[in-house]
Each structure stands twice: as C-alpha cells, then as structure tokens.
Amino acid sequence: MRKLIAVLLAAGLLAAVSVVTAASPKKQTLLSSATQECLSCHRELTPGLVQDWENSRHARMTPREALKKGKLERRVSSEKIPAPLTGTVVGCAECHTQNPAKHKDSYEHNGYQVHTVVTPEDCATCHVQEREQYDQNLMARAYGNLMNNPVYLRLVEDVNASGSFKDKRLQLTKPDAATNADSCLFCHGTIVEVKGLKSRETAQGEMSFPVLTGWPNQGVGRVNPDGSLGSCAACHSRHGFSIEVARKPYTCSKCHKGPDVPAYQVYEVSRHGNLYAAQGKDFDFKDVPWKAGKDFTAPTCAACHVSLITGEGGQVVAERTHRMNDRLPWRLFGLIYAHSHPKSADTSIIRNKAGLPLPTDFSGAEAAPFLIDEKEKAQRYKNLQQVCLSCHSQTWVSGHFQRLEQTIRTTNQMTLAATEVMTAAWDQGLARGLAQKANPFDEAIEKKWIEQWLFFANSTRFASAMMGADYGVFANGRWYLRRNLQEMNEWLWEKGKKR
Amino acid sequence: MRKLIAVLLAAGLLAAVSVVTAASPKKQTLLSSATQECLSCHRELTPGLVQDWENSRHARMTPREALKKGKLERRVSSEKIPAPLTGTVVGCAECHTQNPAKHKDSYEHNGYQVHTVVTPEDCATCHVQEREQYDQNLMARAYGNLMNNPVYLRLVEDVNASGSFKDKRLQLTKPDAATNADSCLFCHGTIVEVKGLKSRETAQGEMSFPVLTGWPNQGVGRVNPDGSLGSCAACHSRHGFSIEVARKPYTCSKCHKGPDVPAYQVYEVSRHGNLYAAQGKDFDFKDVPWKAGKDFTAPTCAACHVSLITGEGGQVVAERTHRMNDRLPWRLFGLIYAHSHPKSADTSIIRNKAGLPLPTDFSGAEAAPFLIDEKEKAQRYKNLQQVCLSCHSQTWVSGHFQRLEQTIRTTNQMTLAATEVMTAAWDQGLARGLAQKANPFDEAIEKKWIEQWLFFANSTRFASAMMGADYGVFANGRWYLRRNLQEMNEWLWEKGKKR
Amino acid sequence: MRKLIAVLLAAGLLAAVSVVTAASPKKQTLLSSATQECLSCHRELTPGLVQDWENSRHARMTPREALKKGKLERRVSSEKIPAPLTGTVVGCAECHTQNPAKHKDSYEHNGYQVHTVVTPEDCATCHVQEREQYDQNLMARAYGNLMNNPVYLRLVEDVNASGSFKDKRLQLTKPDAATNADSCLFCHGTIVEVKGLKSRETAQGEMSFPVLTGWPNQGVGRVNPDGSLGSCAACHSRHGFSIEVARKPYTCSKCHKGPDVPAYQVYEVSRHGNLYAAQGKDFDFKDVPWKAGKDFTAPTCAACHVSLITGEGGQVVAERTHRMNDRLPWRLFGLIYAHSHPKSADTSIIRNKAGLPLPTDFSGAEAAPFLIDEKEKAQRYKNLQQVCLSCHSQTWVSGHFQRLEQTIRTTNQMTLAATEVMTAAWDQGLARGLAQKANPFDEAIEKKWIEQWLFFANSTRFASAMMGADYGVFANGRWYLRRNLQEMNEWLWEKGKKR
User: Fold this and answer.
1) Cα–Cα distance for residue pair B55/B52, rounded to 1 Å
2) B33 touches chain A (CB under 8 A)
3) What is the pLDDT of residue C29?
4) Coil, strand, or helix at residue C229?
5) What are phi and psi of A218, to 5 degrees?
6) Which side of chain A, N or C, has fewer Cβ within a 10 Å radius?
7) Which domain, by its residues, includes B344?
C-alpha cells in the first residue's frame, strides 16, 4: 500500500487522491477526492447505498491492481484504462461523472457534472468486452425488439390497455407511458430521456435535478440518455455489483419467473436447483474463474449460460459470454413457435415469408435467413454441453438433449394445432385477425391461442430443458397444452353451429 | 451475575428463584421455580418446544436486565414490569400462568393455574406499546372485519360451502366451523372459547385439559379466551419468539402468499428479495435498533413496514410500529377497489353511500368519512419513503410512487369496467345480485368479477408497489385483468343474445 | 488410521488397496485400486461429479468403520457386508461394478465390467433395510401403478397426446416414448433397457457404451436393467448422497410441487417451512439419529415422514422408514377421492365394486379389501403424531387432525358433487365416458372434473394437513373447488337447454 502511494506521489496524482479510512476500520482505501466529497454527504444521506458499495470489490480494488491479475482471474477486460482512473478505487465519482459530454442527463451538482444514469458505456471503461458482447445480446435490444415490432406492439397495447364499459360496449384506450413502464418495460427497459431540470428543497438547501422519463428503470434493454442500450445493474445490482449476486439464480428470477418465461420456477424444482438450495451455502460464489467441482457441484443460471468455467487446473470449460446465446442453439421462447436462435440481436429486422416481423410463419416454418443455421447450432450445443460434461457422461447429456429436441417438436405441433383452430375461426369470421386488419390478440379466443404458445408450450419446453418435471405436465405444462386445445376446438365447434 | 443474585437475595426473592444450568452448559440462567417445574417434565415431553425456547432471548434475559438498555436498544416497551417477574428469565410459567382471573381457559395443572392460549394481553406485561399499537392494526380485527361484515360473510359462506347435486340441481350447505377454521380463519383468526374440561390418560397419569373451540389457531385476529384480540405468535413464532424470524420475509408468507395477497411472491422476485436471498446470510437480523446499511443492505417486509430503523449513528429513520399502517397511505388490497387506508382498525363500521359496509361504492367512490384524508396520506408516504431514502435518491423514490399511483388508477379503472359489465348482467336479469336480494358472489360470472379485483387488480398493484415485474403482467397481472374483462364482456354479449 | 492400515495389511487386502491422497490435501482415504483407476481419468473428465463424491461420506468412510457405530448412529443397515468391500471407501468401482451378472447394462470399460445404472439392488449391499422398506413403498411401483392401470393410462395418453387439426377436426396421436419420459415418467420412472452397444470417439479414443432406453432418468419407480425398481438417487442425489440433501425439503420439491401434489408449496408457507427457512441454517442436518430439539426445532418433509427421530437422550420418537407410509393413515392424493392408504405398494391390483382398478367407487366408497383398516390407520396416526408431540401438546395435535379429517370429508363431498354433475352429463349424452366406451378424460368438461379432484381437492387437503393457509382457500383451494363446481353445473344447465 505504501509503495502504491509512493507511485501515485511520483505521478503527481496526489492532488486528486488521498488515503482515508472507510467505514470498515481495519482497511485503508484509496478514494479520489471527488468520491470523498460524494461520501461526505451521502454516507449520511443514503447509508444503505454507501454501505452496499463499501462492501464491494469496487471499493477495495484499484483498476491498476485489477490489471495485474492473470488473464483468467481478471475481472476487468479492458486492456487499457485511462490513467486518471487507475490509481483510485471505483467510487461514486468514477462512474457518475464519466463521459459528461455524452450524458444528456449530466447536471451540475455541488461543483461536479454528475449523471444519474450510469450506462454500459460507462462500465465499458474497465469492462469493454462484456459491454461489446452484451450489445450483441437480444436483451440489449429488448426495448426495440418489443416496441418496434408492429405485431408485438399490438399485444403490448392490448395487454396494458385500460378499459371502460360504455353504452353496453367495452371500450379500450391505449396504455399510458407509466403503465407500459410498470408492465412490459419493467424488464424490457424504458426510454430514459431528460425533460429539463427541476429544483427542490433538500437537506442541503435548494438544488436542481434532472427530470427523467421512464425513471426509475433497470430493464435489460433500457435506452439510455447517452444513447447506449441496456443496464448492467439489471443483473449486477447496484451498488455492490457483486459477482455473487449475479451468479446466484435470484437475480435472473426478477424477469424470468412467470408463466411466459418460467425459467426460475423450473430451476427451483430441478435437481440442479435442489442441490444449490441445499448445499449452495458451501459453494464459492466469488472465485474467478469459476471452477466446476472445486467451487460448485451444481450449476446456477450463470454457470450454464454466462460464466467463465474452468476445471480445477484452469483448463477452460466454457468462455465467459455476456452475449448469453453462445451456448443457446434454440430460442425456446415461443413467438409463436420455438425456433433456431436469431442471428442478430435486433429481431425487429426479421421478416417471415408473409413479410411479418416474426421468426416463423404461422405454420412454424422458420424465417431461415434471419436465424442461425445447423452448423452454428451444433457449435452452440457443443459450447453448452461442455458445461454439462463437467458432471455428466456424454450418454447422459445426449439423452437429455434428444428428449428436448422431441419436446420442441411436440410443443410446436401443439401450437400448430391451436393456430389452425384459430385460423379456422378467423377464416370463418368467428373472430377477426390480421387478415381482417384487426388486432389478432384482443378477443377471448385469441387470448386462449396466445396462452397456448406463450404459457403452456414455453413452460413445457423450459421444463424439458432444465428438468422441471411438473412444469412440463400439470404446472402449466402438457395438461394445459392439451386442455386449452380441447377448449379452443370445442369453442370453434359450438360457435360454428350457431351461425 | 453474582451481583444480580445478591440483589435478588436482598429482595427476599430467592424462595421463588434458583440458579440452574440450562441446556447450554456454559450459561447459567435464572429460572423461576415454577418454570423449573414445567421444564422438569416438558424437557422430556416436548423437547423441540423447550429447546426452541432455550435458544431464545427470553430464556437468557431477565426483564430487569432488559430494562437497563438504552431506549433504542430496548426490546421491552413497558416502563414498569411487575416486580415478581423482573428477576427471572421469561420462562413457561411467566407467560402461561399470568392473569389467571382473566383467562377463561385457565385450568389446574400440577398445582398451577395454567392457560394454554397466551394472548397479547399477557405479552403486554413487558411489551405494552406493541400491544397497544397492534390493537389499532386492521389485523387485530381480522376476525370481525371479515365475519361481522354481512357482505364479506356471504363470500366466506359461498367459498367454504359444501355442495351436493340432487334432483339435477346444485345444492349448497353453509360451511361448518372446522372448515372456516381451516380456510379463511386460519389467517384471520378463530374464536377460541372454553367448552369445559376433558380428562385423558397421559404419561403422568390421568389429567384434565380444557376443550377449546377453534384450536389450534394463530391467526392475526384470533378472539382469545381472555377477550383480547390477536396472536403475537402469528409472526413471532413460539417458543423462540425470535426477532430474526419476524424480520425475515418467510413469516409474512404464511398469510401473504396467494393470488389474493401475493406480497411474498412479489417480494421474492423483486430486486429487494433477490438481494436478500443472495446476501441476507451476511445481514444482522438480531441487532436492535436495525441499522440501514450496517445491518442490512436490502429490506425485508419488516424493514419497510414494521421495524425501528436507524442510521448507523442511531438517528431514527422510521419508528417501530405494530400498527403496521403508519407507513401505508393506500390499502392496495381491493375490496372492491384499492382505497385510502381506513381510519379505524374495525372496518365493519364503514358504510358507503349505498349504506353497505364497504370502503367504496360499486363505482369506486370512497366512503370518505371512514378513510384517511390526503394530509394523513402525505404523512404516511413520508414515513414510508424515509426508509426508501436510506438507499435511493428522492428522484428515484418519487418516480416509483408516481407510477404506483397510476397503477392504482388504472387497476381501479379495470375493476370499474368489470363491475359495470356485472351490473349490466344484474340489471338485465342475466345474474342475480344484491339488488335481487341474492348472493352477489355465487354465480360463475360473479366469480369472474371477483377475480378481477381480488386476484388480478391486487396482483398488479402489489407488483407495482414492490417491483414484482411479471406479477404485474403475465403472472396474474394485466394480462388477466384484460383477458378476464374480455371474457366477461363476451359472456354478457352471448348471454344477452340468447334472451 | 495407521492401525487400520496395519489391519488391512494383515488381512492381505493390500493388493487391492492403497493409500492415496484425495483432492482434500489434509485427508488420506482408502481407495480400492479399481476406484483409483476410475478417478485417474474421471477426475479430469468429470470434475464436478468427482468432487461431489469427494465431499461425501462415502469417500471418507469404509463399511468396516461404519459397522462399528452404535445401532442408532449407524447409517448402514446391512449386518454383513461382503469382505472385499469393507476395507475401502465406497468409490466409483464399488457401486458401478457390483453384481455384473445381474446388470444387463454391464459393459467392458477399460478392463472392468461397468454398469451405468446403479440400482437399489446395488445400494442394498450396505443399506438392505432401506431397500426392503422402499420396495414396499408406493413410489417403487410408480411406473406400473400409473402405466399398468388401464384407467390412469388413458389419462396419460390424453395429457401427453400430440394434436393436429385436419378437415376441421382435432385429431390426437398417442404420445411417443420420449414425451412420456419427459412428462409423467420423469418422476414416476422410465423403463431402462439396453438396446445394444454403440461406439463413439472420446478423449481416450474410440470406446463403446450401451444404448439405453428411457435414459437419463431418476424417477422413483424406475424399472432398472437388473430388474429392480426405483432409484435411490431420486432423493439421495448423486454423487454426494448427502443426508443433508435428503433431509432438506428441496429434494422432495422435484416431484411434489405442482397443482396435483402441492406438498412443497404448502410446506414453504407453513409455519414449519417459515421456521426452516429462517433458522434452518442453525440446524444440524447431518446428525444421526436426528434429535428433535437439539438438531432441529422445525421439521422438514423427512422429519415427519422418513427419518429416525430421537430425543436428545436417544429415546426413539419415530423409526426410520423408507416405506414412507408407516406414518400415513390417509392417501390424501385424490384418485378420485382421498382414501385410506392402500395395503400393497402395487396399486394396479386394486379393484373397486365396479371392477375398475381404482381405490374408490365413483361415489367415493372405498375398495375396502385393498386399503388399510381403521386399526392400522390408528397405528399410523400414532406413529406420525409422536413426531408432532415433540413440540406440540396432545390437545394441539388432536385439534389439528380433527380438522384434517373434516377437510377430507368436505373435499371428498365437493368431488362427489362434481362427479355427479359429470355423471349426469354422461347419462344425458352431453359427454362420453367409460359407460360409452370412451375416454372419460378427454373432453373439456371432463378436464374440469379432473381438476376438481386432482388440483383443487388435493391442494385443499395438503394445505389442511400441513398448515398451508391460502393453498386451502384462494391458491388452488376451496375458491376453485367451489368455482369449478359452479361452472360445471352451469355448463350442464346450458348444454342441457340446447338439446
């Protein structure tokens, strides 16, 4: 530590750096003077936030030290970090005052140009590779992939609509921005824009703060005031940014629990989830790289889909990926059918044969030019299975995935049958869909059709992929796939008779 | 300890007190001779119960010591505790033999007048403030608020009814007491009354025990044999009465998990719940007062709604409240609409404009004289937001609650639309409601109407209030609000056509 | 340790045994040379699997040492264990090369006859009593109890069917083997048969492995290549076989979470589950015998249903049972009605008065000759209640179970009412059931009838048995029992009118 201070002294950086005692009395940390100034008020004003940060690695480690680590142990991926940032720990000012020119939400705050919304662009200073990979992740585009797709947008507008019953008729009004932000965009991300400044009385007297649209929000595809997409805090919760939090399955449950994407529910009852729940207390969630066997003996979401996994000796089992689909051959999530993974993170560019922005036709045929091919699927299967093979034999793994492939086929088949019932209803004028220039998602029978793929087929597939047992049967699984299809069919029959 | 014994000796209390070695060998505790006698049999008879108590603070701390603590650190709120109780730890006899005159369930047991049902009145000996606050809590009146409200009672009687199918007709019989106790009253609380004594063979020979109605029960609004209301053990589980248990979210899940009040489900997937699940192992759940930042960096139910929260330096962020609505401006729970919080804990006294015991009209207009006004709501928002501000900026907090206010409006609107469809059905004679002097809750279409507010509007609001993401969309949220309204409307249309 | 080696030397066993340093550097273990050879490759190939085993008791304890334990402390139940196995720890070869003659899946692997599927027969070498008890457990017969029952088989075939919509008609095809394996048989168990050998390129060159049907699978009633039934790994997860995992509730959640058997959901929100979640971190999950009070102060699934429970002094509260119904008077699970527990683990032999393989008539009358009588029920109640009485008074316990008995009556009554509506529909030709030689499970109204008993009556009963509160009311409980019955009745009324 003394040596480091000497180096800093030599570099003439001492003006901006001084050694202070943080909350933890035994430890001395190198705080920039700007961060010290932040803390001088905020330790009192927002003690929970500050303490969370003080428990963090950011509060204890300078980028200079971080860069000295070996390649596999390193948590920063940028090869070069701007010199003024390397000698102090990563504090308030280091993130909240970066790139002020780009940040439209930057404002004057006690003599500093501060911005509220820290973005992937800010984090990229030290974590450039993660930011680049994430930008190729469907999630980064989650706002536009939903809201810029005219088909999906009609679903959003119907789900979030407000209704009234006037003159014996149901009337719907389009959702307001607050409702969308509280609903779909909570996870997909809002557009955060600055709408001027507003002053307000504070404990420190009158102060001005920016007025932001769509705030607060930490959706995975947030559109930020600096033009970047996404929020690292979606998974790496502020202000601890703990790798433990990101690796534990709870962080994923925030958006991946529900009948549409029941990944967390399925994980919970899977053998993997059982073992994590029973024995995870003995796992090491902070070791980098994450060593299969040594650090953990049952995987979490991150282990299979994101983390750098090695054997005990350091041999790489799987590369870290914030693109998160390097190990995903299929997109199990049904829109309307499970399909080969899209090539581009921007799925609003996809066109099926009918010219609609959907990855498949209504018959399930893939919009092939926009989806990965068999060769890429094989590679991704291989990437994923390397993780499985840390604990399972090839026979086991092959058997598991053969079953998943069959489940993809049969659930797509059950979706096709429902779609054909729906199409018959549209054709016979019993309901009004796209061909009738109407919203295909707003009638009761259409909502049953949606549940067929969005809830029941999805649940069955997730259960198959991650050993979710009853989520493939009675817990939104095949029981409902079959029951719902039966009800749709009987509805068509009854309705047809009446005409 | 020696000094304490000397004091006790001087006070001539030694006859009733002796020093014995409890299960934990390193610690000596002061047990009353009565409690020793209880333990002499029950340590063998009910080892789990006794050990739970032996792990407790009650088993280690005398009220005299407890009273020496500083005001913020103190867990007893009574300024004076009767002298005979101060010198011994809080054992079996201290609670189960108190106030025998008031306890109609008191009975002779090995030479002592013992009562089975320990009540808030008993606990008030040391915890008077908690008892007084809790008495002003809606929960304390949960039995009467449900069962003494003739509107809600019809719902109870229909939900718990037993049905038979005779002469091609469905016939319903009113629920029996055991069914109500197993259903609604499990949480709301039963009436516990003594129905004589019954003798039975035991390991100690023939003994008599009281026969109690509605037993066992630990519902929050239990009507006790001593006339008091509630059960402290609803949250402070016997016989450890651990503050850790009360502060962890699981205890609340007992009654607040389900489609009607999905608070725990929502918490689980919220960022707060994620962080608690991932890092709660490092929190201090036993510190009093509970220090934001130092003791915890993500809140549980208790942190936001109940506990005394301070900063690290002891500055009070939020006062402890067992009234539990000091920080609640709105009653999100829809009966039929979300509404300003009731003034009185006894909600059966409320009358809306139509004279019904409901906090709103069927149109959603509030029964204003019985509900808190805007000024009180502002104060409660402030109380609640003080907790939020320990970790979040005012901009963040304001944005969050503005969105919640909008969600209250839109979910009430979606409930109104459904109520208007329902009213049209009643008016057109397609169903029979209150105006037809019928139960408005027993027909299939009425049950759909109930789910609109009791399940879907509630879920959407809880999700908005606590960042529950999919619980506001596909997991019983807006998707169902909209789908259900659509189905009700199509039913009305179809049904109307047939006539 | 030295002494043990001396003993082994004297016994001339050293040829097969050598002392090696396992992964944990501080500990020396006795590995057979065969296991050493397995590890020499698999420590690299499947590090997660190997480390899981290395953390296990199997990896540290020889059968010889295990047999020296006192009767209550002992985890092996076999009185004699074959000599060649007693001196080494229980490693790869000890299990995977046992009984090669019986194992049709045994194959040549690097000079050893290895089998993939370790079975109860293999485990019985050391755990003979557990294997014998488990063989009398319904679970061991879970495959046949489902698939060899022609009534239930029709349900399976309908739930897992694939559908298509051709010529305006819904057409169903019977499920394929992979779908059944991914659905019902995931928990019930598959038939694992050898279909020849297949060679494949591996890191060690070309090798041959058996081709297995229904693999992977760890269902409780798996039909194994050696003819035995079941999989110990269903609960005792490979390769740690940790008693902690089996005693924690998560392992049960794998199959007992879902609307049909919501045991885990109910446990989670019960007081028992709350306390486990809040305080389980302080319980001792590895102590044998498991001491109520000392080791735990709230039960898990295993505590009530499986484990050997004693008081602190060693007095037996409940005997260990892998039959798992020694403490179960009722089979709460409704097929179609809750009923007295079957006598035989093979339930496909049951015949009701109508000659159907069901434990009750359609009226609910029990197929008495095949079910336990009142005397046996009383004994099982006593066995179960001994566990309750470790923490609760007899008054409490009696009150609890009287309520459960009433809930069994009322839920069976609500099932009866639904069955009578269904029967009326069949009789009137509005649907086609067994009497019409049709599948009674495939029409929409029939599916509503199924949900009455399979989802709602079951949920209500599980909630009553384990204090699940809302699971007996709004979370798939009485609300749905009543709503569903209402809907069925209105359907019958409407449908009847049209004819």
Assistant:
1) 5
2) no
3) 72
4) strand
5) -135, 35
6) C
7) 325-498
